[in-house]
Amino acid sequence: MFRRKNHSHSEQEGEDQQHKVKELRASLEQLSGRSAQYCTDACLKRYLEARNWNVDKSKKMLEETLKWRSSFKPEEIRWNEVAIEGETGKVYKANFHDRYGRTVLILRPGMQNTSSLDNQMKHLVYLIENAIFNLPEGQEQMSWLIDFTGWSITNNVPVKSARETINILQNHYPERLAVAFLYSPPRIFEAFWKIVKYFLDPKTSQKVKFVYPKNKDSVELMKSYFDVDNLPTEFGGTATLNYDHEEFSRQMAQDDMKAAKFWGLEKHPTGANGYSAVEVAPEPESLALPATARA
């Protein structure tokens, strides 16, 4: 009896959520092109979850994202534009997933090699988009592993940069981050964190985990999320962390071609109308994104 009751409650909750998704979609202006391609039901659901299923607040948040995407054009960024930012491997997609099948981004703030905030954000957005594009079917979130090796107060990420990262992740990629592990941060980082935490909303803040190699609970937490054979030694595993910029660049170039095809941005010879496919993206045949490319 109780099982049937719980199942019924779950079904009712699902129906209520689907109704909210339809309500949110009906409240939006007529979408076209990439905006329509972006706004799948799964996408709308993430914005609703981020705003506790309040349709008006979700609509405002989504409209701000659509404006941002129209201006920033994350789907048009190509690796060759940001490759210089990735030379030290300060941010890159790992060659393994966590136990839940999530794409893993490795961040190494101690490897910062440039000073342009705009280019740094462009590089980060490119990798977030790439991580999402490479999510396995049925998975919508990614995990972040942050390695503090080489980090010091002299080469730390400026507050402005950290604030912009948080702004982009929270406001334009809601419910995309599953968990972020801050691995063995130095004591001096605590003061920096108190400032950064001010910009985090409670839901995002709960996803940030401080882990320390000599702390038993931290070790168990990492094991619950990762296979130690895949996890680099820098994060308490047994694998070797070896970033090969040339090999990573080849992978990204291949992904760029797949992403361009998905968004209808393949480069074709100029047509009779004088425009290339990059300048005028064709309307998508289907508004439903494949599970591996929801954004």
UniProtKB/TrEMBL annotation:
<dbReference type="Pfam" id="PF00650">
    <property type="entry name" value="CRAL_TRIO"/>
</dbReference>
<protein>
    <recommendedName>
        <fullName>CRAL-TRIO domain-containing protein</fullName>
    </recommendedName>
</protein>
<dbReference type="InterPro" id="IPR001251">
    <property type="entry name" value="CRAL-TRIO_dom"/>
</dbReference>
<dbReference type="InterPro" id="IPR052578">
    <property type="entry name" value="PI_Transfer_CRAL-TRIO"/>
</dbReference>
<dbReference type="InterPro" id="IPR036273">
    <property type="entry name" value="CRAL/TRIO_N_dom_sf"/>
</dbReference>
<dbReference type="InterPro" id="IPR036865">
    <property type="entry name" value="CRAL-TRIO_dom_sf"/>
</dbReference>
<feature type="compositionally biased region" description="Basic and acidic residues">
    <location>
        <begin position="8"/>
        <end position="21"/>
    </location>
</feature>
<dbReference type="InterPro" id="IPR011074">
    <property type="entry name" value="CRAL/TRIO_N_dom"/>
</dbReference>
<feature type="domain" description="CRAL-TRIO">
    <location>
        <begin position="79"/>
        <end position="243"/>
    </location>
</feature>
<dbReference type="Pfam" id="PF03765">
    <property type="entry name" value="CRAL_TRIO_N"/>
</dbReference>
<feature type="region of interest" description="Disordered">
    <location>
        <begin position="1"/>
        <end position="21"/>
    </location>
</feature>
